[in-house]
Each structure stands twice: as C-alpha cells, then as structure tokens.
Amino acid sequence: MDPVYPAAPLVAPKGSAELQPAAEQQHLLPPAPPSYDQATTIPAETTGPGPTPTSAPANSSTTQHTVVVVPASPYGPEPLDVQCPYCHNYARTRVSFKPNSRTHLIALILCLLQLYCCVCLPYCISSCMNTNHYCGMCDRYLGTYDRK
User: What are the Low complexity biased-composition ranges (predicted)?
Assistant: First the structure.
C-alpha cells in the first residue's frame, strides 16, 4: 500500500505556477505562539497613557497565589424548581430530612438535662436536620443543604 502523504514537502517543478517552492511557503505560515515565559512576563515598556508598572528587584522572588472559590450549594431548606442533570426535566425537588451530628447533640443535651420526653423532638423538627434534595421526576439524588 502506498503512503497517503509524501515524505518530502511538495515543490513545484520549474515553470509551474500551481505549487510554490518550500522557501516561499514558509512566509504563509502564521508565526509561532510565544513561549510560556514570554507570555507570562510583563513587558518593561508600555505604550500609551497611564501609570507604568513598577518592576521588582531582580533578587527578590515574587509569589503568585491562586484563590479557588467553591460555590455554595444551590439547594436550600425548601423544595425548589431545578433542571435535573440526569433526566433533563424541569421539576420541583422532593426533600427528605436526615439527622446530622447537631441533631444527635441536641438529643444528648436533652437527655443529660433529664428531659427524656423531649429527646425525640430534634428528630421531628426539620430545622435540626440536613435537607436532601431529589429530582421530582426520576427520584435521583441532587444535593444536600447542610444546616450549620
């Protein structure tokens, strides 16, 4: 089987206007992108109005800090209308409440205060528990609203 691409660059035979010589094809290529060092350094000279950037001394090291912001959960304590990432339907979420460590701590404090008849109250009050959201159509888990 013959190779699909030629091994050498195409060069037109003398007198042919269809293909250009390899040396003339070089100027048709776009310039190479800058290196990483060239792209990340601030040029020393600026053209135009405005303050000129001050450069740090050559012997001092500069540190760049990257701050990653994690968005808060879009879910709250109440059901809300969302587009499910699984079934792609717009539906109101179904919520269920799950006890967390705060719920157990409140029950323990009520027990230590000898309020035995009130120990079950934190497990019945939704504001003492986390809220799990599920899709109203496909019933898949979407997220949790953590009580703090």
Answer: 39-62
* Distance in angstroms (rounded) separating the CA atoms of residues 95 and 57: 58
- Asked whether the whole model's pTM tops 0.70, one would answer no
Is the residue at 100 inside a domain?
yes
Separation of CA 147 from chain center: 24
Q: Does 97 reside within a domain? A: yes
How many domains, in total, are found in the chain?
1
Q: Can you give the length of the chain in residues? A: 148
- Which of these, 131, 133, 142, lies nearest to 87 by C-alpha position? 142
Strand order in the sheet with 94-99: 94-99, 129-134, 141-145
In sequence order, what are the beta bridge partners of 91?
82
Residue 121 is part of which domain span? 85-145
Specify if 35 maps to a domain.
no
The model's pLDDT over 74-133, given as tens digits with 9 standing for 90+, comes to 888 899 999 999 999 999 999 999 999 999 999 999 999 999 999 999 999 988 999 999
Q: Identify whether 130 is part of a domain.
A: yes
